Amino acid sequence: MKLSPLSVPYKAAQKGGSIVFTLAFVLFSGASAFLGSIGGPLVAIGLLGLVVVVLVGYETLYYQRYDYDLTPDTFDIRSGVVSRRNREIPLRRIQNVDISRNVVQRVLGIAALDFETAGGSDTEAAIRYVTFEEAKRLQSEIARLKRGDAEDAPEVESDELFALSDRELGIVGALSFDLRGPGILFFLLSGSIPVVSSFFEFGVEATLLALGAVAVLAAVVLVSWLAGFALAVVNYYGFRLSRTDDELLYERGLLQRYDGSIPFDKIQTLTVEDNPLKRRFGYATLAIETAGYAPGQGTQRGSEAAVPLAERDRVLSLANDIEAFGTPEFTRPPKRIRRRYAARYLIVLGVVTALLFGVNTLLGASLPWYGPLAVLPLIPIAAHYKWKHRGYWLGENHVVTRNGFWKRQTKVVPYYRIQTVIDSRTIFQRRWHVATVTIDTAGSLSLSNQDAAAVDVEATDAERIRGALEDRLVTAVAERRSHRRQAAQPFIGPVEPDVPAEENGGESADGDAVDSESSEQTDTTSRDSDPSSV
């Protein structure tokens, strides 16, 4: 099977745009004098024509030498103009087939396909470009072959779980901030605008300096909010989520339209996320982390927002539809840990105040160095809320953790998805006789230390939690393997006995490793140190 013929002019124009821009830059630069001596604009036009001929010729050859074939077991791709490359991708390895289309591609009726495999965030193969109808056919055919359905089997029906209304899309934008805006704004204000920069020269009145700082802060907040609003609307316009028996299906995007799926058997962690503003109005976000892959986002993240924003009760209901974990009853850290959090905030406040005082003294400025002390009465309240929004719960089939106040995340992990259980204790935690139990999965967010974790639990409880998780992991993996084996068994005949996870090299049938680890950071302080120390 071949690519769409429209891929030739589209890819040629796509690659030629940067070359044309380069030629235009050359014409308006000092090199134009050199070109003038050998023909001037005629040379530029000749170069442009040559570029067009080369690009169109190359893309035509690429189109002629590119073909793919879908077999019952593999997806085969043969490509290459100068050097040939043949790839056979086993269907069992394909985790997802994602379809994406930008505005121009939608007008032309073509689409890009990305084939993702479990165990990594890189795209296994990408097809640029086929017709949208062919892309949908490949997506459904690969799903059918992976399920083992007959060729004449009826099309799998899907039930819509969630659709983002215009009002909800507006709320998503209103509650979104993009922190890349401040970096751009500070660059613009770093000296390229003399009027603003003059407010930061030493020797001006403190009041004027304070007003300038407030103006900059307001501009940063406004730019962040506008950027977040625009990105949210572009990303989640027309968002719809539906489900079949074995996967979630989603569509989203305004400028770049994504159409993909999230297989149930690849889901590692569910995350219900909110912040004070969302909690105030009763909203939350549901994110799904899969095995090292973020549908529609390639290598950018390890999770995909399954529901960008909805009422919290509805989000929890949808999460329970995917993983029936029930209603968690969290166990918080010991109450004395609030003093530890307060002490940490006091240290940060003291460092900031000391730095401002040092700047005042060394530079002879009249900065209000004592200003940060105004937040001193809020420290006990902040410490209490940090403690209040932390906790863990060991359910029948899932472990659930909760952490964060400004960005609170409630993570749900099935026991059979656990890869490693880590009991870690910093020097400060050891002085307070507490520990952190981290539940590591095969999801890619584990690379950025965003795993589910029971933070600041009693040291004795940490050992109990780790042992319980290990036991439940082994039991859950054995039960899952037993269910799969029974589903594959004929109606008559003996059933093969279960093999404990330990006898299988510590690995489950679907690659879920059984492992545990107890690690302590290097510490020269005795475990019997004063528990009131920070």
TrEMBL record:
Residues 480-534 are annotated as: Disordered. It comes from the Archaea. Residues 499-520 have a biased composition (Acidic residues). InterPro entries: UCP026631, YdbS-like_PH. Residues 525-534 have a biased composition (Basic and acidic residues). Residues 63-141, 236-319, 387-467 form the YdbS-like PH domain. Keywords: Membrane, Transmembrane, Transmembrane helix. Pfam families: bPH_2 (PF03703). The keyword Transmembrane helix applies. The chain crosses the membrane at residues 43-63, 184-202, 208-234, 342-363. This is Putative membrane protein. It comes from Halogranum rubrum.
